[in-house]
């Protein structure tokens, strides 16, 4: 995504970044199985990119592969593989465009293999940017402009002087993102009541949430409390929709994202206000306020076992532990300190010899550990930061196959947003880097995606020698079915009905197909829909 290095955004940076957020996960859904083990996700990059910086429309540059990498060159030098990657880009762009007008993707199909927690850019100074995957906010304010309050906003004060009323700060220790944030300083000796009121905003059909980042001290909420309040157009009274006093105790002054549900205000015009009141309290700041298609803040879906499935290959996931419970505490602890805070869980299916390399980062110093059970967990590996500059990390080779659980946790009273990244190499038997794609050896699948069955059409060069084999693998690389094609001349067609060799119906999702003739091979990806 292109962004000016001088500080002024190019034409459509916000829209272009939203487009990147939409395209990236769907692109990776096709790149991961297409390139198998010879690629690395470089995520979303922001820079002063010449080829798109002056485009007067949302624009991103997609770097698919390096032709100097022989493995990647062999894969991309094939029409079907290029079509797969192109389809991933098209589906992501389709989702972005559909979000602008509301409704389902124009193709009628949902994005493939979307991760439950979206991929995010690197962390900002005070916390991880964990804003939910809204494709485009209809309203946003980051307090980056030099005028405060921003155009359309108003402030109300009980008479407190600056800095004890709402002000703009550029202190890099306070700003969540960009160059500015809104702040009320604490320690005022008299009772204050400070309001920061938004302009009138119309809540559109896709505007499901009001999102804002806040940083404060929950433990001093009895001295100074902060609230978010909403009133519809024409109303003089405010409805409180969030309160600092109701937040769980957590690491102090680390930004957290809160999303307030706006469903009851759909179609209305509203104002929202941030209010700080009390005496001798702590500082309180907000940043990056937005209205858009944000899901409301709730308990994490992976709060407890069995958790969410950890993807194979390279991954980068974000989340927040604060709104969960304390579920997995191995005895003895996996790390030096007791982990009695809220935690979240990821499940992984490992085979003997598989490797997990993982790290976690967050401004509140989260820990990470691996256990073998939900009910009576025993620790296999763990790491806790020895200093704020070194995120905890570990690598573990599984001695035996089975189900394991990766946990992000912290000491009692500490929680916050985190960024979890690493690599999990699942079983890759018979799905390894083959010696290139043979020219003339072809494999097509239609329809794709498919429901009840898929037709596989194979073609081999007339001079090819050797028995032809078609095998189907799941995303972990395990062979689930073997088909026996019968060629008439150099072509054949064979159907697969979505059942494994043992007769069991396989789950909806993506599968690899491999056509092998002698030492020649070609691979494709198919998608089974529910």
Task: Briefly characterize the structure.
With 530 residues, the protein is mainly β. It is built from four helices and 28 strands.
Tags for this entry?
single chain; about 525 residues; mainly beta; six-stranded antiparallel β-sheet; 4 helices; about 10% helix; globular
Outline = globular
Radius of gyration based on Cα positions:
26 Å
User: Biggest sheet: strands, sense, closure?
Assistant: 6 strands, antiparallel
How many helical stretches?
4
User: What is the end-to-end distance?
Assistant: 34 Å
Mean pLDDT: 79
Q: Low-confidence spans: pLDDT under 50, at least 5 residues?
A: 5-11, 105-130, 427-438
Helix content: 10-25%
Strand content: 25-35%
Task: Please give the structural blueprint.
Blueprint: H1 13-35, H2 50-53, H3 70-76, H4 79-101, E1 139-141, E2 154-156, E3 167-169, E4 181-184, E5 192-197, E6 201-202, E7 209-215, E8 224-232, E9 239-243, E10 256-261, E11 269-278, E12 284-292, E13 308-309, E14 313-320, E15 344-350, E16 355-361, E17 367-371, E18 379-383, E19 393-397, E20 402-409, E21 417-425, E22 442-446, E23 454-459, E24 468-473, E25 479-483, E26 491-496, E27 509-517, E28 520-528
Parallel strand pairs: 13-15
Antiparallel strand pairs: 1-12, 2-5, 3-4, 4-12, 5-11, 6-11, 7-10, 7-12, 8-9, 8-11, 14-21, 15-20, 16-19, 16-21, 17-18, 17-20, 22-23, 23-26, 24-25, 24-27, 27-28
Structure notes:
This protein is globular. With 530 residues, the chain is mainly β. The two termini are 34 Å apart. A hairpin with a 7-residue loop joins β17 and β18 (379-383). It has helices spanning 13-35, 50-53, 70-76, 79-101, and strands spanning 139-141, 154-156, 167-169, 181-184, 192-197, 201-202, 209-215, 224-232, 239-243, 256-261, 269-278, 284-292, 308-309, 313-320, 344-350, 355-361, 367-371, 379-383, 393-397, 402-409, 417-425, 442-446, 454-459, 468-473, 479-483, 491-496, 509-517, 520-528. Residues 5-11, 105-130 and 427-438 have low confidence and may be disordered. It contains four helices and 28 strands. The strands form six sheets. Strands 1, 3, 4, 7, 10 and 12 form a six-stranded antiparallel sheet that branches. Strands 2, 5, 6, 8, 9 and 11 form a six-stranded antiparallel sheet that branches.
């Amino acid at each position: 995504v292109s962004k000016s290095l001088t500080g002024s955004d190019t034409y459509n940076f916000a829209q272009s970044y939203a487009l990147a957020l939409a395209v990236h996960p769907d692109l990776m859904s096709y790149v991961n199985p297409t390139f198998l083990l010879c690629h690395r996700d470089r995520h979303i990059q922001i820079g002063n990119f010449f080829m798109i910086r002056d485009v007067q429309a949302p624009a991103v540059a997609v770097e698919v592969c390096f032709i100097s990498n022989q493995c990647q060159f062999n894969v991309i030098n094939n029409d079907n593989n290029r079509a797969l990657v192109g389809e991933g880009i098209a589906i992501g762009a389709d989702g972005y465009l559909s979000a602008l007008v509301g409704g389902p993707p124009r193709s009628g199909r949902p994005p493939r293999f979307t991760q439950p927690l979206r991929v995010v850019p690197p962390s900002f100074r005070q916390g991880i940017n964990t804003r939910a995957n809204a494709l485009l906010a209809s309203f946003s304010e980051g307090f980056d402009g030099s005028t405060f309050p921003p155009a359309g906003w108003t402030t109300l004060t009980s008479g407190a002087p600056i800095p004890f009323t709402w002000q703009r700060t550029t202190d890099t220790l306070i700003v969540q993102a960009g160059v500015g944030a809104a702040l009320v300083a604490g320690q005022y000796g008299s009772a204050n009541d400070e309001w920061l009121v938004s302009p009138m905003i119309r809540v559109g059909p896709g505007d499901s949430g009001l999102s804002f980042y806040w940083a404060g001290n929950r433990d001093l909420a009895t001295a100074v409390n902060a609230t978010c309040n909403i009133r519809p157009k024409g109303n003089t009274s405010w409805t409180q929709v969030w309160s600092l006093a109701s937040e769980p105790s957590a690491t102090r002054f680390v930004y957290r994202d809160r999303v307030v549900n706006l469903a009851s205000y759909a179609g209305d015009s509203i104002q929202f206000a941030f209010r700080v009141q009390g005496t001798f309290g702590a500082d309180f700041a907000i940043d990056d306020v937005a209205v858009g298609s944000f899901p409301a803040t709730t308990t994490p879906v992976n709060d407890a076992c069995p958790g969410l499935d950890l993807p194979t290959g390279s991954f980068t996931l974000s989340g927040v532990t604060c709104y969960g419970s304390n579920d997995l505490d191995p005895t003895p602890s996996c790390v030096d300190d007791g982990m009695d805070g809220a935690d979240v869980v990821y499940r992984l299916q490992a085979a003997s010899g598989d490797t997990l390399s993982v790290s976690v980062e967050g401004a509140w110093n989260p820990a990470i550990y691996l256990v073998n059970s939900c009910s009576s967990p025993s620790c296999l590996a763990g790491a806790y930061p020895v200093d704020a500059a070194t995120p905890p990390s570990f690598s573990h080779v599984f001695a035996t196959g089975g189900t394991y659980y990766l946990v992000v946790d912290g000491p009692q009273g500490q929680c916050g947003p985190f960024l979890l990244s690493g690599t999990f190499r699942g079983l890759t038997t018979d799905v390894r880097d083959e010696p290139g794609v043979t020219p003339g050896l072809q494999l097509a699948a239609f329809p794709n995606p498919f429901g009840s069955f898929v037709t596989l059409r194979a073609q081999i060069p007339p001079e090819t020698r050797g028995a032809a084999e078609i095998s189907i693998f799941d995303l972990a690389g395990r062979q689930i079915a073997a088909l026996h094609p019968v060629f008439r001349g150099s072509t054949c067609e064979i159907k697969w009905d979505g059942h494994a060799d043992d007769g069991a119906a396989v789950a909806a999702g993506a599968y690899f197909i491999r056509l092998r003739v002698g030492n020649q091979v070609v691979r494709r990806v198919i998608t089974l829909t529910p």
